[in-house]
Amino acid sequence: MNNYSKQREAILEVIKENLIHPTAEEIYELVIKKEPQISKSTVYRNINILFELGEIKKIKSAIGPDRYDYSYKKHSHIICEKCGQIFDFDYNFDNKNILKKAIEQIGKKIDIDNIVIYGICENCKSKNKIKEE
Amino acid sequence: MNNYSKQREAILEVIKENLIHPTAEEIYELVIKKEPQISKSTVYRNINILFELGEIKKIKSAIGPDRYDYSYKKHSHIICEKCGQIFDFDYNFDNKNILKKAIEQIGKKIDIDNIVIYGICENCKSKNKIKEE
DNA sequence: TAAAAATTAGGAATGATTCCTAATTTAAAG
DNA sequence: CTTTAAATTAGGAATCATTCCTAATTTTTA
Q1: Beta bridge partners of B23
Q2: Domain span holding position B21
Q3: In terms of CA atoms, which chain A residue is nearest residue B124?
Q4: pLDDT digits (tens, 9 = 90+) for B11-37
Q5: Which of B1, B24, B45, B67 is least surrounded, with the fewest CB atoms within 10 Å of its CB?
């Protein structure tokens, strides 16, 4: 692992250029424009490698497949469980204290990578209130 | 939706009794002991209904299928991205402030349902340091 | 420049979940 | 009660996302 390949480079570029939290499928559709011969398995394999290397973040959406994120700047995510929409969220969690409590409660240190707030957004909430026919 | 069915009741009971964040498959294996005729699609359908109703929580694990949780008490989760382990985490997030910042940043109110900390646990971190053969 | 290691394309295989349908169960109405 | 309507079920087919497999190619090493 960790050798040069133009495919891997193109995939990382696409993820860097598209800050829309694309799915693997979407990454494939974008990267195929640059590397028309690329196969889907190569996209999946390299996404996983880039994630392992810590170059990109994996976001477990509430709905549909996983999404990926290149973070120029550290941030969290808010995800709606009804519509699946993902919002970038810039918040200063007290990581030092979270870490301390985590060690107390689970007995081991955790390297915090991404904090995700799952909830229901206003739009989806109000939709629910309308009596369904 | 929302009518009586002994299958749905049995599924909810199983989730209440097993606080191990079971997957749909695991719920099926447990509930089949009580309702031997039950089908897997019934389990999936009812898990979704119970989630829609807000009776159970869905946890997007870093690894493998979704997991479910009946919460007698509100809590968060810490999930390891390498091994997929899920830890219950009792932490007092400043939800009022989070909500305020969220409205500022994304322009809409969010009903916070579950805060998840994705990271890498000590065990997995130390495994990585060992030179792989 | 030759040998070893890593990566690729492409398709098959797998795993999780949803969808479909006819039969059954539950609820509602007279 | 009985009848009718609505909801739910079992079971399997279908779908979707992802991983696995293999022979060929590319990259690295020495």
Answers
A1: B67
A2: 1-72
A3: A110
A4: 999 999 999 999 999 999 999 999 999
A5: B1
**Closest-CA distance of chain A to residue B46, Å:** 17
> Is the distance from CB of B16 to CB of B56 less than 8 angstroms?
no
Residue range B70-81: mean pLDDT, rounded? 94
The pLDDT tens digits of the residues spanning B29-68 come to 999 999 999 999 999 999 999 999 999 999 999 999 999 9
Q: What CATH number is given to the structural domain containing A26?
A: 1.10.10.10
Q: Does A78 touch chain B (CB under 8 A)?
A: yes
Co-location of A133 and A80 in the same domain: yes
Interface mutation target, options A60, A66, A124, chain B, most CBs of B under 10 Å: A60
CB-CB contact of A113 with B81 (8 Å): yes
Q: Is the pLDDT of residue A131 over 90?
A: no
Total domain count, chain A: 2
Nearest CA in chain A to B115: A117
A105 and A120 assigned to the same domain: yes
Give the H/E segment covering residue B11. helix B6-17
Looking at the fold, whether B80 and B131 belong to one and the same domain comes out as yes
pLDDT beyond 50 at A3: yes
Q: Are B111 and B64 part of one and the same domain?
A: no
In this structure, the answer to whether residues A3 and A67 fall within a common structural domain is yes
Angle in degrees, 0-180, between the axes of helices A24-31 and A6-17, rounded to the nearest 10? 110
